[in-house]
Structures are given as structure tokens and as C-alpha cells.
Known about the structure:
This protein is of the alpha/beta class.
Amino acid sequence: MITVVIGTHFGDEGKGKIVDYLAKDCHMVVRYNGGNNAGHTIISPQGKLVLHLIPAGIFNPDCICVIGPGVVIRPGSLYAEIDALNKIGVDLKGRFFISSRAHLVMPWHLALDELEDRKRKIGTTKRGIGPTYSDKIARNGIRAGDVLLPDFKKKIKKLFEERSKFIKREYNFTIGEDLNEWLSTEEKIGEYIIDTEPVIWNAVESQKNILLEGAQGTLLDIDFGTYPFVTSSSTTASGACQGSGIPPMRIDRVIGVVKAYTTRVGEGPFPTEIKDKTSRMMREKGEEYGATTGRPRRCGWLDGVLLRYAVKLSGITSLALTKLDVLSGFGEINICEAYRIGDKRYDYPPFNIKDVQPVYKTLPAWDDIEDKLSRNALDFIKAIEDISGTKVGIVSTGPKRDATITL
Ligand code: GDP
Ligand code: IMO
Ligand code: MG
């Protein structure tokens, strides 16, 4: 069984928790897009850990974890994660691999992300993601496999000089990162770099359970998101095939992770955003602060129009609903079932999404979440299913692995 797990909105839907939960029955988890802009939180038996690059299956000792060719890797960040895992006794040897085709985030990419965002104000994570993907598409990128080539250091030193001069000239800025330190980290990840295609194909052909872990969310997709307020990779289920090397016909199911309300970090349109006591309650109860940058997340009601869009774009076969516990005691809750611009009603996000008004369905909230879901919680789930046209298969009622109900 091959399963893709994606975010249905603007990221931070709880993908890490759901992947960790599902990985208990998996042979392999493959990350397929983004880089250390992602922050996937897992509460494992060893405690809380935020993973930025390593797949969230890593806490299941029998699970092989692969960083696929569609990911961009900052070596220092990856090494810090490897180190943190080793320190809590998670062994990676023989079960963690990095695709030789994955591109590397270089010191100049970090500098350019910072400098460009000062002008364009997308509110990026400043992790060098956009510039790294730009260089990849322009055919100027450096790939993980290059690290293993004999002339690598010489090539990088030359490139560093060229790019440093360019950045100094264009932006009057000196790149902060120390190249020698960067190169030494680079060597430390070398032992994990392999051609991942045969390893992945082998698992596919042996009918193993494979999970493809998406980063970010559908509305941050480079093609279908709220451009230009998006990330620079494909966050949909199609991106999972391209970023892993698994053919589309082999995908069996696509699980969309949806939070009981919606959040967004960074700039860009957010039709159901609210800025009042209720959104503050969502932020505080839901601990809605960026797992990567610590920025407060913008909060609002669950946007069912965007959910429907995510279902259509990725062929989502079932939903994993997270953070149901956070809305306990909210009195009344809203879910957006359509948009309006003037008299025109939309059941999908139109090009001019910043002009839309949400149309809400209002429901009573529940007092508490127990193992057995109350009538009101079940009605909320039913409303989500009706609006999205998709069944909810998993309900998450807390950050820990065991706070999970399958329906
Ligand atoms: P991801 O990027 O999609 O993996 O999500 P993040 O890890 O950035 O953010 C989700 C946050 O919600 C994390 O702090 C999780 O520990 C937490 N979380 C996940 N599921 C639940 C849930 O059902 N209830 C509560 N209260 N927290 C949850
Ligand atoms: P996970 O995987 C939430 C947002 C940034 C910014 C925009 C572009 O944890 O859900 P980038 O650094 O990618 O060029 O920034 O995308 N963003 C995320 N928001 N969760 C994420 O990942 C995100 N990754 C990027 O805040 O608005
Ligand atoms: Mg996150």
C-alpha cells in the first residue's frame, strides 16, 4: 500500500503527528518536497522533537526513512537533526538515506532569501528555500551527490567567491556563514547519500507499505497556492511522485491532513482569518507558534472551500482531522462552506481570492473530547465530510501518538 500524506491548507496541519502514527505499520517513509522550512512536531516515547528534514517515521525502529530527490537540504540543519536523534538513542545507521539528486541549500541561498524577502515581504522562513529551487530550475544547483565527487571542495570554493562578490555588489551584503564549517558538515552527511531510486523501487515492487510525507500545504503550492505568497515546491500529491520517483499509478491512497480550524504563518490572503478573542484562544490553546521560526500563526475558522480544492487537486481519498480538542468549550464554531464576491458565489478559490467573503455554517461546539466523540463533535465531522465530499478516517485529539481515533 502506498500512501501520500499532504497538508490541505497553509501547512502546520499536524502532518508530523499523523505520519508518526501511520508509520508504525510502514516499511518506509519518504519526504518528497521542501526543506528545513518545514517543522513537523512529534511527541515520541523519547519526548517532543521537531523534525525539519528527517521523515517523521524515524521513531519507528523498523521504518526506513528517505529524503527524496525533490527535497532541498541544508547540511548543517540536517546534521543537527541527526545529532539530536543520536543523542536520544535513535539509531539511523542502515535505515536513513539521502537522495544523491536532492539539491543543497548553500550559504548564498540563505543570504539571498533574507535579502529578497526584505523587498518582497512574502514572510519566508529565511531558510534559503526559494533561491535553492530557483538555482535548481535554472540548472545552477549543487546536488547531494556532488559532495562525493573528488573536485567538490575546489568547485564550491570557487562558486562561493563568485556568489559572494555578486551579493556584495548587488546588495552590499557580506555572506555570514563560514564556508569551512559548512564543508565539514557536508562531509558528515556524506555517509547517508545514495542513489535512492533502486531502494524505493525495490520496496514498491515488494508491495511494502510506503508513506510519502508532504511538507507545507496545498495553498502554499507553487502552482496552485496563493501565489506569490507560496513556497517554491509542489506540495500536492503529484509532487509526491515527482519528488520521490514513484510512478503516479502506484499511489493507492492520499490522506489530507486538516486542522479543526485554519492557520497561516507569513503573509498572503487568508479568507477565514479572525482577529479577536476567539483567534487568541485558538493560538493559546492550540499553541499556534511556528515550529521552525517561532512566529505566532495567524488563526481563523476552518476553510472548507480550500479543503474542497485540496481534495480535488490531490485526489484525497480520506481526511485526518487534527486538533479537535482545541475547539472544546468554544460555544459556537464556524466552518466556511463557500465564498462570495458581491452576488457571485464560489465553491472553489477564484484567482482574486483576496476579494472573497466567507460564507459560514455555524455549529455548536463540544464541552470536552473523550474517547467516544460527542454528538456535536460528530456533527462537525459530518459537516467537514459534506463540504469536502470526503470521509474523515482519523481524528486526532491531542499531540501524543495515542490521542488518535480511527473512524
Ligand atoms: P506539521 O508541520 O503539519 O507537522 O504541524 P506542526 O508540527 O508544525 O504543528 C502542529 C502542532 O500541533 C504541533 O505542535 C503538534 O504537536 C500539535 N498537534 C498535532 N495534533 C494535535 C492534536 O490533535 N491536538 C493538539 N492539541 N495538538 C496537536
Ligand atoms: P510545514 O511542513 C507553515 C510558509 C512561510 C511563508 C511561505 C514561503 O511545517 O507545514 P519559504 O521559506 O518556504 O520560502 O516561505 O511558506 N511556509 C510554511 N508555513 N508550515 C510550513 O511547513 C511552511 N513552510 C513554508 O511561512 O509564508
Ligand atoms: Mg509545521
